[in-house]
Amino acid sequence: MRVLDLGVISNNERFRRRAELIARFFEFEFRFFNNDEDFFSNSGDYKGISCVVLDCSELTKPNEVAGQVQVAKQGAPESYILTVVSSKLSPEDARIVRTSGASLVIMENEYLSSSKPEFILSQVIRSTYIPIKALDLVEGSEIAFPIFHLLSVNKRFLKIAKPGYKVGHDFLEKYIEVGDLYLKRSDLPAWVQYTNLHSSEGPESHLRKCRLRFLQLNQSFLNLVLLITDQSSAASFAQGRELFEVCEGFAAELLESMADLKDPWSVISNSAIGDFGSVERAPAIAAYAGILSTQAHMGNPKEIMIGALLSDVGFLDLSPSTTEKVRQNRLNDFNAEEKMEYQKHPIFSLNQCLSRKLPLSEDIKEIIIQSHERMDQKGFPHRVRSDKLNESAMLVRLCWDLDMRCQVRMGEKRVDIKEVKQKLSESASSDTGNYSFIFLNKILKILNKPENNGDVIVV
Ligand SMILES: [Fe+2]
Fold first, then answer.
1. What domain range includes position 103?
2. 298 belongs to a structural domain
């Protein structure tokens, strides 16, 4: 028996088509079920179902929805249940649904016309596994969690070590060559414990710690974004503030651990974290922005990181067709309507944060809203005058550009960050009107600085 990625419970054609398009885009194995009963009778065909999308958009009473959620939950107790309810239901009604066992509740209009389902499904299904480096395993140590290898042929995860396994020399030799290995997301606390247990002084331990902090920032950011997408009042403001503070804490710790490294750039660019898409790139952009801000003594590094993390949250409000082009890096293929929508995303981002009452400083708000503005007023969304431009926002935009050049899709070869930095520095200085002269003066020195004197090797 195998694990099914996605079960779709609906007999509505439009609903099914939307789920199918997402499943095909992300290459999920999926199956349709006509209703909750059908699902309950047939879910036993699988060892597990990672995620279930339950269509309750026709139901008007919260108790009826809650009943269907409970049936689905009985059929697949371990699954993540994304429940889609009628757009007429109130947040209080959505709360009842949530407490009946739904993992997340969204409205029908959001399901059909926003990009929230893309984000939720890709995160829930794909980040069931999180990447680690084989290099971070210590020879002779015993692991308390299973380890997986991603097969490039069929993009399935193969278990290669069980809990209790003692990491052997041959194992390490074989997989260090491969680079990325994977853990179940639920084993992250065990991985944190393992990394802390095997920490020591020295460059390898610093690298390991930095990668762990990056992983933690990524996970806490994803949790925050999932909460932002939740429409039920059960997802409270207090919870939002709490997750925001966790993110801030990990951002600060990542900054600290990057400061211990000669070449923090490579750690971030070599990570497979966030390889699956758009909003998911934010932690990498934030990390690059943190490094540049620290090294160029520009702005407040932690605030810049938070601004970078949140400035693309508005992608969730974009229509599915616009997001698909963003995910495929095809910004030049937008039609007029998609372009207009895309150019509003900094406004959507700020609105998402404000509607969740995240405690943002004025500087962070400015970084978010100005994250695509240019000196020549050809940016967006407000075409801010050059003397009103925030340097920290410019920095975030530069790092977004850097990350666009670094992105790899599954199975592709990683690019060399040193080359990317050099090309970025050339294009930033030749594109007059993009950044201010003073800004470039400070930044180019850092981008062109030779890194890594040879005693730290990052694979
Ligand atoms: Fe953006």
1. 3-113
2. yes
Boundary (domain end) residue, out of 84, 113, 142: 113
Amino acid at 67: G
Domain count, the chain: 2
Segments in the chain below pLDDT 70: 201, 232-235, 274-278, 408-413, 451-459
Q: How far is the CA of 397 from the centre of ligand 1 (A)?
A: 8
- For ligand 1, the distance from its centroid to the CA atom of residue 310, given in whole angstroms, is 9
Q: How far is the CA of 371 from the centre of ligand 1 (A)?
A: 6
Strands 104-107 and 129-133: unpaired
Is 134 within a domain? no
Q: Which tens digit of pLDDT belongs to each residue from 360-369?
A: 999 999 999 9
Predicted TM-score (pTM) of the model is 0.89
Name residues with Cβ closer than 5 Å to ligand 1, which is an ion. Answer: 312
pLDDT number for residue 453: 39
Same domain, 437 and 338: yes
The DSSP string of 366-421 is HHHHTTT--TTS-SSSS---GGG--HHHHHHHHHHHHHHHH---TTSPPPPHHHHH
Ligand 1 center to 308 CA (angstroms): 9
Helix (H) or strand (E) holding 80: strand 80-85
pLDDT of residue 451: 63
Gap between the terminal Cα atoms of the chain:
36
Taking only the tens place, the pLDDT of each residue in 117-126 is 999 998 888 7
Distance 345 CA to ligand 1 centre (A): 7
Per 3-state DSSP, the chain is made up of helix, strand and coil in percentages (nearest 5) of 55, 10, 30
- Supply the pLDDT for residue 308: 97
Domain stops at, among 68, 84, 113:
113
Is 217 inside a domain boundary? yes
Residues 98 and 201 in one domain: no
Which CATH number does the domain housing residue 314 bear? 1.10.3210.10
Domain match, 377 and 277 both = yes
**Residue 355, domain member (yes or no):** yes
Is-contact 374 385, C-beta < 8 A?
no
